[in-house]
Structures are given as structure tokens and as C-alpha cells.
Amino acid sequence: MKNEPISQPDAAPLDPAASIALGLATQLAQSCATIESRFSGTGDRLTECAMRLNEVSAAHEGLPGALDSADFASAEASLASISRELAHFGESDGSEDTAIVELRDLAARMGEPLVELRRVMLLLEIISANAGILAAELSGTNGELSAFTGDMVSLAHGALNGIAGFEHLRLALLSQLTGAAAAGDRFARTHADTLTHVRERLDGHVEAILRHRRSGGEQYSDNAAATRRIAARVADVVSAMQIGDITRQRIEHVQQGLERLSEQLQPQAETGDAAGDTGDDTDARRAATAARLRSLQQAQLRSAIEEFGERTGFIARSLPELAADTEQVLADGDRQARALTDTSSDTLTAMLEDLRKVRRLFSDFRAVRGEADRMSAAVAEGIENMVAQLRTIDRIERQIRVLSFNMAAQCNRLGEEGRAMMVITQQLRELAIRTEQASELVRANLGKGAEAAVGIAGAKARSEKLSELDGATEDAITRIEAASEEMRGHARTLSERGPGALDILRKAADAAQTLDEAEAAWNQVLHELEAGQGAAPEADAEIDHILFADLRRAYTMDSERRIHDEMIGGGTSGTDSEGNEPAVAADDSDDDFLSALF
């Protein structure tokens, strides 16, 4: 600072000691300008580091925890249930398939009696033609024979129509049964090994997950605890970083004290009442106040420098150690995480693949079952229609018998003339017998077909059970996919947050080596204060208690108050020697909490 000459005649020259004190205050003010930003920035980064390490710790616990959750336990229980039901499914008697094959065979076997019935009705037409010729020769004698032959032709035509309808129904049914049987065969060929293979693999997957859980739980719990401990140590360093703000405030208070010292060192004419002096102040009192004030600022500055050096030293030592420990813990955790995620991911992927195979099996079964359900309805309708057609044939067979009986009676009345017609009557009886035999065979097959159709309908309960099982499988897939995604999320956290935390620590460790740069400037100020120290005032010399009370009220740290009270006195016990109000009580909530770190 350059002193300008004062033009006023009563201006006193600037005291050199006051100028020095003011210059020292300026030096302290300049050092405070950078300390806060440096410590604050490093502290913020370390806070972020601690947060990242806590996320890493949670990820370490979450990796095996994803396999130990309630949702995943439910999926495991579903796997066990699915495996048991697949065993029952594979051990089923195949009654539905058997019923379809049996129905198909029955429908095929009904073709032979239908051929016989058609043959009989064609013979009936031939016999009717022969009977018509004989009836024409005998028509002059008896016109009733011509009526009989006409009935024979009508019966033959009706029977042939009924047989044709029956055959159409049989062929349609046979086609459906053949298609259903082929679908069943395809299903069996496609999934011949699926049931056994998947069931065995599902059991293996459950055992593998149990192994992963046993091996990973304790190990990852240790990793999580180690990472949490490092995060807590980082938090301790973050707390220690508050020394920057603490010291800044203490240096500012020393700066203010030096400014007051400069005022005390100014000649009385320069300061006047502005310095707070009264007309009663004496040079001795001002000298004693300045001497005591200089000693106080020396003590305050020395204490601030010592505490700052101690804590920045702790920070400078701790951060490189933390970086090295973090690097080791993260490397171990990353290696274990890769081992768990790789093996469990393979297991979960294989598990999902097998469960999807089970779902495809269920889907194929539903397709086959749907065909069987449609075919079952068609079988029931077809059998009902064929039974109706069979009743028509039975009615024609009875009419043939009645016709044969009536013709025989008529021929007996004709005597010798009716002998030729008796041969036709005998043929009619034989055709009636053959019709009855063929009808009985068809009827027996239809009865067996109705029983077989019950077996197809009875498979619906099994289908409904598999539908429930399919729903359980879908739910298990959803839960396992959620566990897989959760594990992938934790793995991403480890791969992203861990290296970032380590990078912050390394940079903070480098920055911590220069945190004490301001200490050299403070020591220089302290040295100059000590060099300018004059003779100590007498112990009972009067001082300006109001000035010192003002200084004490500005303190924010308990350590400042203790030093002040030790050197100046007063403090918290009543009034000072001038009768002024007590100084502000010491606040125990300042920087004492940091002492636990050192």
C-alpha cells in the first residue's frame, strides 16, 4: 500500500507498525479467496464418491439377493411343480390317443359290413327284376304278386340310399379320425424327448441356483461390507474436508483482529473516536491493548495453522490409502461378480429356454387337443347320424322279412303255380338274414365307437390341468426374467459406478497433496507478527475490554473462544472489568465433531 501525503495541517504520519498489521491482514484475505473453493470442490467430489460406493455395496448385496428374493423363490417352487406335473404327463396312459386310433379302426372295419349290405340290396334289385317277370306271367291269375315285386324294388332303392348316406358319414368320420391320429403321431415324434429332457434339466437348474446362492451369499456380503467400510472412511475424509471452511473462518477472524490491531497502532489523532476510543484513553491503555491483541492473533493463527496442518495431513495420507483399498475391493468384487453373473446367467438363460420349450409343448398339445375336441364333437354327431341310418336299414330288413312271409303265404295259396315264386321268397329270407347280420356288425362297431368317444371327451380334465400348468410356467418365466434383469442391473452398477468412484478417489488423492499450499503464507504472516512483537505489557495493564468482547462475539469456533478466554479472560463468567455484558457462551456444536477423526 502506497502512503499518500496528507494535506491537512493536523494529519499525522501513518504508523509503520499499523501499516504492517494492515498488510498482513490483506495477505490473509487473499489466501482465504481460494481455500474455500478448493476444499469445497474436493469435498463435493468425495461425497459423490461415497454415494457411488454405497451403490456398489448395494449391488454386491443385490446380485445374490436377486436369487434369494420372494419372487424368485416362487419361481423355484413353480419349477418343482412343473417338473412333477411333466412327470405325470409323460407317464399318462395315452387313453385319448388310444381312443382315436380305436375309433379310426372301427370306422375302417365298418366298411366291410356296409359293402355286404350294399351287395344284399343289389341282389334284392336283381331278385325284384326276376320276381317281376314271374309276376307278369302269373298276373292273370293273381295281381297281388305284381304288388309284392314293386315293394321289393322300392325297398331295395330305399336301402341303397340309406347305405350310401351311412357310407358318406363313415368316410367323413374316418378322415377326421385319421387327421387327429396323424396330429397325435406328429406331437409324439416332435416331443418324444422333450418331457424327459426338460424335466431333468429343470431339476438340474434348481440345484445349480441353490449352489450359486450358497457360494455367493456370504462372499458378496463380505464384499458389500468392505465397500461400505470404505464409503464410511470416505465420509470421514469428507468431514475432515470441512477444515477448509473452518480454517477460512478462523483466518478471517485473525484478519479482522489484525485490522483492529492496525487501528490501535495508529496515532490517536488519526483514529479519534472512530476507533472507539474515549477521551479517557491513555497511550498506555492503547499500547497494552495492541500488545494483547497481537499476542491473541498470533495464538489464534498458530492454532489454526496447526489444526489445518494436522487435518490436511490426515486427508493427504488417507486418500491414497483409500484409493488403493478401493481398487483392491473393487477388483475382487468385479471378479466375483463376473463369476456369479456368468454362471448364474448361463443357468437362468438355460432355464428360460427350457421353460419356453415346455410352453411350446403345451401350445402343440392344445392344438392337438383342439383338433381332438372338434373331432370328438364330430364323432358324437356322426355316430348319432349313423345310428339313425342304421335304424332305416333295420326297418327295411324287417320289411323284407314281412314281404317274404306274405309272398310265401300267397304262393302257398297258388299251389303248383306259385312254386317258382317260392324260390324268390326263400332268397328274400336269406337276404333278410344277411342284412340282419351286417347290421348287427355295424351296430356293434357303433357301440364300441361310442365307448371310445367317451375316452376322448374324458381327456378334457387333463387338458384343463395343463392349461393351469402353462399359466404357472408363464409366471415362472416372468419372475426369472425379472431376476435376470435385476442381476444385470446390479452388474451394470458395479461396472459403471465402481470405476467412477475409484477415479474420483485418485484425483482427490492427487489434489490433497496441494491442500496445504496456503499454510506457507500463513506461517509467513505468523513469523512477521512474532518478529514485530514488542515488550510484553504488564499483567495488570488496562486494556479495551469492549474491543475484545466484540472480537469474541464474532467467533464461530469453540477453539477460538477457548484461546480467547485463556489469554484475555472473561468469557462466560459474569461481566468483564468494565461491567459490560458477558461474552457469548461457547457453542459445543462447532468443529468438535471432527476431533473423533484424529
TrEMBL record:
Q: Which domain of life is it from?
A: Bacteria
- Which portions of the sequence form the region Disordered? 263-282, 566-592
Q: Which UniProt keywords apply?
A: Transducer
- Family matches, as InterPro entries: MCPsignal_dom
What GO terms in the biological process aspect are recorded for it? signal transduction
Q: Does the keyword GTP-binding apply?
A: no
Spell out the GO cellular component terms annotated for this protein, sorted alphabetically and separated by semicolons.
Answer: membrane
Per UniProt, residues of the Methyl-accepting transducer domain are 290-444
Q: What is this protein called in UniProt?
A: Methyl-accepting chemotaxis protein
